Amino acid sequence: MTCSCSEPILTVIRPVLRWQPSAMLRSSPLRRLFGHLLTLLLLCPGLNAVGADRRTENVVLITLDGVRVEEMFGGIDMTILKSVTKDKPVEKSALYQKYWASTPEERREKLMPFFWSVLMKEHGSIAGNRAKGSTVQLTNGHRFSYPGYSEILTGEAHDEVIKSNDKIQNPYPTVLEFLKEQLNLASPQVAAFASWDVMKWIAERTPNTITINAGFEPYDHPSPEIRMLSMLQHETSTPWDSVRHDVYTHRFAMAHLRAHKPRVLYLSLGETDDWAHDERYDRVLQALERTDLYFSQLWDYLQTDDQYRGKTSLLITTDHGRGIDEKGWGSHSAKLEGAQYIWIAFVSPDSALRGEWSNSETLYQNQTAATLCRFLGLDFNASHSKSGKPVSRVFQAP
Length: 398
Ligand SMILES: [Zn+2]
Hints:
CATH class of the largest domain: Alpha Beta
Shape: globular
Bound molecules: zinc ion
């Protein structure tokens, strides 16, 4: 019989195989049970990735608000481009000249070059391209932000309770609080930086459990540069009262990463959603392109630091999709077709998958919390039995 088990599992099991059982065990049904357990261990896929050989010691969760699968997998969308250029020839538009190419692969790489040519090629994988037979969708029925973020962070939809974007404390414990407790971390070691102010209420059930900096909130830091940015955020207004520019959120998160070395970091970027509501397709694409730069800056830093290099898993996703055509792309709601579809990317030293998922099982937004925990070898479902299960394929051999 051939066995696909990897060497680390055998390292653990070999001494057990050499062990001589007592007379009682040799002659009892316990021996059969013992044999079955060994067989189970040997056949159990994915044990290697999260067992003794697990490399992840830190996790980073990143969300990009309301980024559609269409742009994520196909770059600039010609249908929308035509509708926003109106009477002018589309080929003459600056957006066409900057972002258009003949294939979806080329277009998305023009929009997010680091994400596609480095992260997805060499370090991770992404699910959700329905054109390739991979679907990721919400389990909440609302298809807007608070229910989406809560589903990501609690591993469960609560449609009857979480049904607005109001500033109401999340009544359910989040994975960030769970990880702080399980890993016995101080508050700055579990930190969330968000462009949208409501994240202050979404990210934790018990206020002040973790470090949260959200919306137009000052960020205190010893560096004069960061103190200046903290001031400037109030002088560079956005068109929206509750969402600051992502550059501040990103810079504060990076400063926190350097100063406090959190083991759990959540970076929640927001501009992509608000520019889409304003039907500024140019700004949506520019925000995505800037986000790609933030990814590369974050990644470069992680590679320079001993705590993070080769020991950090990233999960990147979105809170909801949006409408699919030139009429609906700016919006998202329970009745808008397309807004239920999202995407999830996994970048981890414990995952061998690379590139796009194809012809695979449907994933759900409620699986993100348990997957984050499993990267760290923790079982979220043990205490949150209704939350989605970890995405097991991430941890299996490709
Ligand atoms: Zn929105």
